[in-house]
Amino acid sequence: MNNLVLNTHGESLTSGANTTSPKRDKGLPAGVSPALYNHDLAPTSKEGRTWGSYSLFTLWANDVHSLGNYAFAIGLFTLGLGGHQILMALLLGAAFLFVLLSLSGFMGTRTGIPFPVMSRISFGTRGAQIPALIRGGVAIAWFGIQTYLASMVLDVMLITLFPGLQSLKEQVVLGLPLLGWLSFSILWVVQVLIACWGMESIRKYEAFAGPVILLTFIALAGWIFYSAKWTLHWSAPFESSGKAMWLQILGAASLWVAIYGTFVLNFCDFTRAATSSSAVVKGNFWGIPINMLIFGLIVVILTGGQLAIDGTLIQSPTDIVQNIPNKPLLMLASLSLLILTIAVNLMANFVAPALALANLMPRHLNFRRAALVSAVLGFVILPWNLYNSPLVIVYFLGGLGSFLGPLFGIVMADYWLIRKQRVNVPALYTHDPAGPYHYRNGINPKAIQALIPSSLISLLFAFLPTLQSLSQFSWFIAAGLGALFYWMVAPKGLTYEDQDGEAISVASAKH
């Protein structure tokens, strides 16, 4: 099979008889296909990368402290886990995540390519649309839903400042009050403006939001601890013990990893601009196990403190924020929650669909245009109606989510076990039939053969009541099966060319 290589001038050559270069579009590097390349999909050059360990730490400082994560961790009390058991479950999950995210992150640092392009290695230049669009589709729906949830916090703030707006809550259009439309639109515009300035703008926002969020939740925990007269209820209302307790701890740790099933898949979207692998390790270390320990302590203090105060089991930190008696402090806390939700939405639900759409039509959509398209889609699906429909959440988003574990297993097995990190980066951007990633008409049938059975099994875990007891471990099972099936069918013993993408790279700040 012929492999694409580059001479010292960055011009494409192919080994073998066929030495005809593809037709070059104006403004594109020699050898790349315009249907596979634009500046936002191009590899990032090693010089000028801007994501250091602090940038990656603040990424986690925002995402770990999301309201959804707090609701999940607080919910562990109702399952019979006490404070020390919840901390154990979160730290065990953090250890798994640290390993998985570091392995995923190293791929981006070494190659400089985003997830849709990374998927071309195992799925093929055309087949990569499958994992990219699945990941992007999940993110678009959750972008809209998270914006809607944040808009409800903004509703409270606006009514507090302008009581006359209360009347707008009584007029409903397409399932949402007029005040909700106003709040949702404001937050939608703010997020679009930040995202449309590119990844560097997102990095700066995350760096700003991270300390704000940490200080806000630490202050909230301190206030509750003081209000509870420095006492906490560490025990759950119906605490389990023995084998059942350990199964719940392992199940909670597994679910904690599953929450990040989307992020472990496309973490290279961020680490492609990381300054080094050591920056990834340091950022992940402080951002995952250490930050998650702080998160767990805050969960225990907020929940155990409120139980000590009045015996109430809160559902979310918003329950505490809404009861802050001081109006200025209430506004500051609510503003912090909005800053947090925007930060989480940008990193988890904006970058992936923007790059997926850019990968779908690179000649027409750069990151900015694709981000706007994905934001519009997140608006027109009327996400408040999706959120209020259990069928949509369970069957649509849950069904799509069942593909994430197998996709991760296939991509990771191909990169680490089959190719052993040897990637010809320039060849990922050519439709040359002789290219190593063209496979069969641009699709790797081996990846599809591994994806179908592992995804079907994952769906069974998600929807069959008889497998409910194992559903907590479904992400690990699905990822393991995806990796196993791919390893079984993939050719072995081949020699793979290793070529960096510096010749066709662009500065990370341009992304």
UniProtKB/TrEMBL annotation:
Gene Ontology molecular-function annotations: nucleobase transmembrane transporter activity
Matches recorded under Pfam families: Transp_cyt_pur
Ranges that cross the membrane: 86-109, 130-154, 174-196, 208-226, 246-267, 288-309, 329-358, 370-387, 393-418, 447-467, 473-489
Keywords: Membrane, Transmembrane, Transmembrane helix
Membrane topology: Multi-pass membrane protein
Spans annotated as Disordered: 1-25
Compartmental location: Membrane
One GO CC annotation: plasma membrane
Bias (Polar residues): 1-21
Gene3D superfamilies, alphabetized: Hydantoin permease
InterPro entries tied to this protein: Pur-cyt_permease, Uracil/uridine/allantoin_perm
Main location: membrane
Similarity-based family: Belongs to the purine-cytosine permease (2.A.39) family.
Name the UniProt record assigns to this protein: Allantoin transport protein
